[in-house]
Amino acid sequence: MAASNAQSLLLLPGDGIGPEVTSEARRIAEAVAPDIKMEEAPFGGISYDKFGEPLTAEVLARAKKADAVLMGAVGGPQWDKAPRAKRPEAALLAMRKELDVYANIRPAYCFAALAPYSALKQHLVDGLDIVIVRELTSGVYFGQPKEITDLSNGERRAVDTQSYTTSEIRRVARVAFELARGRKRPGVRFAGVLSCEKSNVMETGVLWREEVAKLHGEDYEDVQLDHMLADAAAMHLVKAPKDINVILADNLFGDILSDEAAMLTGSIGMLPSASLGDPGGPGLYEPVHGSAPDIAGKGLANPCAAILSLEMVMRWSLKRPEAADRIWKAVDQALAAGARTADLGGKLTTREMSEQILKRL
Ligand code: IPM
Ligand code: MG
């Protein structure tokens, strides 16, 4: 928690389009919650260039002390040759691990005005409202050993380790069940939690399915639980996405399924995310889109994902549902009025789009 009484939000603008979209989110924050204390810090490639580290100890300490951390985006081709541990992506993984934000919440919500922009036919996505709960601090991203070794026969061998413990599965499953309990969807086929793994070929999948079912029996029998193999779930997401309410998946499957779900909503430039740990610790918020180096600095980026990530900051970490509702409605109304950035075929710049939202707050 913050040392003073004021709630604190640490902004990490990062690389590429990150600074552009973060500064628009900041303007919205100043409008809806002028009392919160906002600070900025370098993170990602920009930090590597300045300090030789993509995540410095000082910035990590400040993140741990904040009530919430809002990131822009990190990475870019200029850091592809940096040593693996110094790449911007490594800083992102370290930040997630250090803050222990094990539950990554990624809503895939199709705003009414954006249904025609979906990769799918409009009737399949009209009213689409899915939340993906992705495990974020374990699994194949972090399991050891993780290495490339030279073999005596001149070949090389690469190993990643997929590993999960019971408690790692249970704590993220609990977040999914709680979420589903608060968003009952009568008439939807998988009305509660749809848990995805590959228990047909992976031991981690077997344990995942068993532990999720066990927790369900203990504490969540009022919530519908279905299990699906992750590949079948990928298929179902494009066949009948409105059958689904809350998806629960491990780190890698959740990464893939959330990109797939993003495409259903019109533009990845719309999607926010929240990463949460146990209550009391800071939440980490980030747009799902990347740093988009090809359009960086041109004012073309869609600020909505960052602004909706701020909406999640207000709702989940700062417990300001009214401020969150104001942001949500303003985005919805701006889109309904036809406000569009280039990713949605529009002409508005990043700043003009956020102006459209600001004036509707
Ligand atoms: C995401 C991204 C990251 C991930 C990358 C940039 C490390 O794809 O947040 O989905 O794989 O987790
Ligand atoms: Mg991803």
Can you characterise this structure?
The chain is of the alpha/beta class. It has 2 domains: 1-102 and 277-361, Isopropylmalate Dehydrogenase; 103-272, Isopropylmalate Dehydrogenase (3-Layer(aba) Sandwich). Helix content is 40%, strand content 19%. It has helices at residues 18-32, 45-51, 57-65, 88-99, 122-125, 166-181, 203-219, 230-239, 251-264, 304-317, 321-336, 350-358; strands spanning 8-14, 37-40, 68-73, 103-109, 129-135, 143-150, 156-161, 190-197, 225-229, 244-249, 274-276, 283-285. Strands 2-1-3-12-11-4-5-10-8-9 form a 10-stranded mixed sheet, with helices on both faces. Strands 6-7 form a two-stranded antiparallel ribbon. The protein starts with 7 loop residues before the first strand and ends with a helix. It binds 3-isopropylmalic acid and magnesium ion (MG). 3-isopropylmalic acid is lined by residues 89, 92, 255. The site of 3-isopropylmalic acid has 3 residues, from helix 4.
